[in-house]
Amino acid sequence: MSLSRCLRGLNGLLSIALLMMSGSLQAQPLDTSALRQSINGPDREIADRMRDPARKPVEVLEFLGLQQGMSVLEVYAAGGYFTFVLSRAVGPDGRVYAQNSPRALRYDEDRSDITQGDALSQKIERGNLANVIRVDKALDETGLDSESIDFALVSQILHDYYNRRPASAQQMLRELFRVLKPGGILGVIDHHGLDGLDNQRLHRMTLAQAHDALTTAGFVIEAGSDLLENRSDNPRRSIFDPMLNRGTSQFVIRARKPE
């Protein structure tokens, strides 16, 4: 073998090794201890920190398989509760696309006198969340490339799409299927509902409905978690009922786009 051919072969192997190294540096398991410390500092809203024991964001994201360095699409980021945690979780090498429709930006932030859009802005500024990119557009107008996202989060919103019209849920899920990379993760969190009740009014859905919606859209259900189950919940009450004090029982699903 000639010297030049040998050098070309070595260069090729070196390029592959560098690509593999780069990929491994971009996606690393969560450092859950560091993440807990990062989201408990004075640069995060105390109201959000008070919600953590019930919402268990670190445990949920660890279960869902989020890693440092990932690109994330957060569907309906609202006032940014999860945006802050996602930003700190993926770190400076990651990216979070915080999506809200223009209409959603005008909604009142829960238990606050500002809009969700203003609340999100304040969290990004106060936390110096430089890796967050706001996407103030409808989900089907984000402009994200196909197969460009590692991880998508749909938290407490699938029921609204599904209960309005199951076809609406399919449109949303198929858009996520489009932007996720092969093998990409879709995390779903939602409020437990019971068959036979008016779950549209209650803002809930059954686990079976969520599974059906996901598999119909082409996703594979990998696992579910009872991290957010709450036996004191009353599924006959609306999630906004003051008697529940946000204490609903919720399911967590890890789904994946096939390779």
Automatic annotation (TrEMBL):
<dbReference type="Pfam" id="PF08241">
    <property type="entry name" value="Methyltransf_11"/>
</dbReference>
<dbReference type="GO" id="GO:0032259">
    <property type="term" value="P:methylation"/>
</dbReference>
<feature type="domain" description="Methyltransferase type 11">
    <location>
        <begin position="129"/>
        <end position="186"/>
    </location>
</feature>
<feature type="signal peptide">
    <location>
        <begin position="1"/>
        <end position="27"/>
    </location>
</feature>
<dbReference type="Pfam" id="PF01135">
    <property type="entry name" value="PCMT"/>
</dbReference>
<keyword id="KW-0808">Transferase</keyword>
<dbReference type="InterPro" id="IPR029063">
    <property type="entry name" value="SAM-dependent_MTases_sf"/>
</dbReference>
<dbReference type="GO" id="GO:0008168">
    <property type="term" value="F:methyltransferase activity"/>
</dbReference>
<dbReference type="InterPro" id="IPR013216">
    <property type="entry name" value="Methyltransf_11"/>
</dbReference>
<keyword id="KW-0489">Methyltransferase</keyword>
<keyword id="KW-0732">Signal</keyword>
<protein>
    <submittedName>
        <fullName>Methyltransferase</fullName>
    </submittedName>
</protein>
